[in-house]
C-alpha cells in the first residue's frame, strides 16, 4: 500500500508563515447604532412611567406621614386620658379641641368632612380626608373604632 505525502518546499512555507489570518474584532458602526436606537426607544417608553411612579410614591408617603401624625394624636389622647377633637371651632368641657392638622407640603389642600375625635380609650369616630396635590387627588379613609385606614388614589 502506497501512502501519499506532500512535501512543501522552503519557499511555500515562508509564504504561509507570512500570511496572517485576520480575525474580526469589535462591532461595526451599524451594529452600535442599532443598539443605541433600541436603547433610546426603550428609555423613551420607560422613563416617563418611572417618573410618574416616583411622584406617586412620594405623594403617598406624604399622606402616610399625615396619618402617622394623626396616630400620634390618638396615642396622646390615650396617654392624657382626654378626648382630642380635630376640626371643631367651639370647645367643649373635658375636651381638647384643635384645628391644627398635621402639616402637608405647600400647594396641597386638605378637605375634611366631619370632625375627627380620639377618645381616651383609643377609639376614634373615623372619617375621611381628601387631599389635592398639584396633579393628583388622594382619599384617606379612617375606619371607626380601631382607626385602621386605607389610602386611595382618586
Write up this protein.
Helices cover 40% and strands 21% of the residues. With 154 residues, the chain is an alpha+beta fold. It has a domain at 63-153. A hairpin with a 6-residue loop joins strand 6 and strand 7 (149-153). It is elongated and about 110 Å long. The termini are far apart.
Brief overview:
With 154 residues, this protein is of the alpha+beta class. It is 40% helix and 21% strand.
Give the topology.
Blueprint: H1 10-18, H2 29-80, E1 83-86, E2 95-98, E3 109-112, E4 116-118, E5 127-132, E6 137-142, E7 149-153
Parallel strand pairs: 1-2
Antiparallel strand pairs: 1-4, 3-5, 5-6, 6-7
Strand order of the largest sheet: 3-5-6-7
One letter per element, helices H and strands E, the order comes to HHEEEEEEE
Structural class: alpha+beta
User: How does the major sheet shape up?
Assistant: 4 strands, antiparallel
Tally of DSSP helical segments: 2
Strand content: 15-25%
Oligomer: single chain
Total E-strand runs: 7
Radius of gyration: 36 Å
What would you call the shape?
elongated
What level of helicity do the residues show? 25-40%
Give the termini separation.
94 Å
Low-confidence stretches: 89-95
Average per-residue pLDDT, rounded, comes to 79
Amino acid at each position: 500500500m502506497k501512502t501519499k505525502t506532500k512535501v512543501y518546499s522552503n519557499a511555500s512555507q515562508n509564504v504561509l508563515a507570512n500570511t496572517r489570518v485576520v480575525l474580526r474584532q469589535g462591532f461595526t458602526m451599524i451594529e452600535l447604532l442599532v443598539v443605541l436606537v433600541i436603547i433610546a426607544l426603550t428609555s423613551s417608553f420607560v422613563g416617563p412611567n418611572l417618573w410618574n411612579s416616583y411622584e406617586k410614591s412620594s405623594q403617598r408617603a406624604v399622606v402616610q406621614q399625615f396619618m402617622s401624625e394623626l396616630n400620634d394624636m390618638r396615642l396622646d389622647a390615650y396617654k392624657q386620658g382626654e378626648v382630642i377633637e380635630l376640626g371643631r371651632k367651639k370647645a367643649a368641657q373635658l375636651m381638647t379641641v384643635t384645628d391644627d392638622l398635621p402639616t402637608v407640603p405647600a400647594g396641597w389642600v386638605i378637605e375634611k368632612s366631619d370632625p375627627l375625635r380620639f377618645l381616651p380609650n383609643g377609639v376614634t369616630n373615623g372619617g375621611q380626608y381628601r387631599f389635592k396635590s398639584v396633579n393628583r387627588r388622594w382619599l384617606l379613609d379612617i375606619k371607626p373604632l380601631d382607626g385602621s385606614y386605607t389610602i386611595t388614589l382618586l
